[in-house]
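Hey everyone, long-time lurker, first post.

I ran two proteins through the pipeline my lab uses and got sequence/structure pairs for each. Pasting them in order. The first:
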Amino acid sequence: MTVDLLLGLQWGDEGKGKIVDVLTSKYDIIARFQGGPNAGHTLEFDGIKHVLRTIPSGIFHSNNINIIGNGVVIDPVVFKSEIDGLAKFNLDLKSKLIISRKAHLILPTHRLLDAASEASKGKAKIGSTLKGIGPTYMDKTGRNGIRVGDIELADFKERYRALADKHEAMISFYNVDIQYNLAELEKEFFEAIEDLKKLDFIDSEEYLAQAQKAGKSILCEGAQGSLLDVDFGTYPFVTSSNTTAAGACTGLGIAPNKIKEVYGIFKAYTTRVGSGPFPTEDFGEAGDLMASVGNEFGSVTGRKRRCGWLDLVALKYAIQINGVTQLMMMKGDVLSGFETLKVATGYNYKGETINHLPYNIEEENVTPIYTEFKGWKQDLTGLTTFESLPKELKEYIEFIEREVNVPIKIVSVGPDRKQTITHK
């Protein structure tokens, strides 16, 4: 019996979907533990690019079960489109994909509330993806939410109506110009609910407990990144769930002492989507080059990602709060061609040198202290062994390992599942 955990260590978009796909053959169950459909996990193989929003990234493998856990929020309309997009691959979703009854549903009015709230903030907006995720988690913690298990109840539509009516009253409170046709949105929503009912709903905490007793191996899959955690991220520019290791316990009902390996995924540089502080952001040619070569656009939203140098202060923080045991470095190939690479190894914080992430990392308080490295020109995308990597990249990797005191076990040199180098 093994329970391992995989999560992102930066501001999301680290490449978790690819690594879950690469690791899936070792596990019987892949279980998504938090987040909503703003998280696009991109997988690429056999010349085809796949973007999954809610469905766990193990779905393309034939011999495992994929679970959407209680910590996830599900938009039935988005979920239906995701299922429809998978139809051409002849996957047996009925037997491979199951959903926790305790997962919360995103209603059409949650999306409208999201838009109204963000519009009301003006320049102070947090950069929401407007998928209704924040308002859904607010209803969850406010004990007003509707869960997947409620679909099975006789009064489901009455429960829906009561909450939707409450949301409409809240939307009018914001006093912003939001145009919508709720009847049309609701028609689409209830059609999608009928599709959702074709899948099996489970008490996932019991299912996973029995799976552990039976000796099954489980990989818990997170969404977004540690620096977007609602408690430990760059609040308020964060998501609405716990993206850190603790979220796997609350989002699946797995006890902390059952988790063995914690796989932490990070890019060889840093990116961020939306608003919020970003100490190592590069506003010049280097940042533009990372964005263009790395194709740094959101897989769901299409938004351009802000780019900058690797921040070891933030990375060490994420490793610490998650208890990371193994690292995977993504997109090393994007840095090919840079004459010089920079890595932030400390901060100048209000005139003092520090090596930890402080409460406030806004640019008026924090200036990164960089260590520079010689770059490499070699194209990495066709390489298959660690020994074949350029000397400068190996030195870059070894420096990171020494600084964070955790081994880098995988180096990704391209988006395809085959472009993955294992480092013993």
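...and the second, right after it:
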Amino acid sequence: MSSTHAVEGIVDAGATSLLRFATAGSVDDGKSTLVGRLLHDSKSVLADQLEAVEHASRSRGQEAPDLALLTDGLRAEREQGITIDVAYRYFATPRRRFILADTPGHVQYTRNMVTGASTAELAVVLVDARNGVVEQTRRHAAVAALLRVPHVVLAVNKMDLVDYAEPVFAAIAEEFTTYAASLGVPEITAIPISALAGDNVVTPSATMDWYGGPTVLEHLETVAVVADPSDDPGRFPVQYVIRPQTAEHPDYRGYAGQIASGVLRVGDAVTVLPSGRTSTIEAIDALGQAVDVAWAPQSVTVRLSDDLDISRGDLIAPTAGAPGVSQDIEATVCHVADRPLTVGQRVLLKHTTRTVKAIVKDIPSRLTLDDLSQHPAPGELVANDIGRIVLRTAEPLALDAYADSRRTGSFLLIDPADGTTLTAGMAGTAFAEAAEEAAPAAAADDEGWDF
């Protein structure tokens, strides 16, 4: 089998194997109930789990089992009837396997959606049919767009409370679709549901015959999410250098890690970044066996023809499509820490397997979600703010634009004092639009961080 056919074969075989998706929405829109309904009606709930939920529901005076309790597992969540942390669940149907992230709806937990949606291929945004699109709905749509989630489902929930009225659904769907499309969301599917009653979640609704589209589960089972890895540029962040220096392998020098994107082949001319040194892939070892080709997200060991000074944090990429390196970074970020991010702040920047010192040189703007306008020169970003920042790093980084690679275009800013994650960053322009001209960088106190 040729290398090309090997890649095509794995893509075909995995086309319907696994879907990662996240749910989001405002408070009490019914996210946890929807997830519970999906698990219950797809028969993905074990008998003892259902019995525990029924017991907890009875103790709260509820006659019917509260399916939201299948995901709200923290004591505080059950006591308050809200979702606080991201709840990950696994379930499967005969057509596909799923990993879902049920994210919180409260404004102060919006940052948790960044965690849940960062690896998602699809986001389900719920809207209460009685309330329509609210600010938190727009915030979640903006986060999904920033994270370049390729598929968004608008689930208009609680249709039973508006008498299953088609005009209510149509108005909400039009408003949300117009807003999300302005953010550059490539695909939006609107579905009217009642998570509590089960309408259009797993089985079609008998009371909404005016809707002829798929149920939520049917769409999840059939949406196309797997792309050919050979379409993406090859990126291999080095995690570990293997030097056994044994009698059996006296000269073995391998670079272990997980392929972040694209395909690597034996014989490829590659460049090691940030040093810029070049070599050729001599061999690729996967699961103890030599292979001619490997692709994302496989974990492999790469051996090069030349003995180069390579360590953890370096990036190996095919020379033909190698990224540029720079110490100046402009990015859109979502601030996730309780303490603000300020101009002049010293941080650590973690990009793939590399962590370097950096300084926040400027915060040109903060996004206003109501009308997607940019508030200029805010001076700082507080928890859940989305904004533009300019960074200067101590060492050059091989950073792709996030629009080109969600894996190698993303980074984290970390507090060097205690290791707290401060900000999730996406390099390059915001959404699918051209970035506005950044204001001149403000002066920062670089004492002790001279770069």
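Reply from user beta_strand_b:
Welcome! Quick read of the second one: The longest strand covers residues 354-368. The two ends are 50 Å apart (CA to CA).
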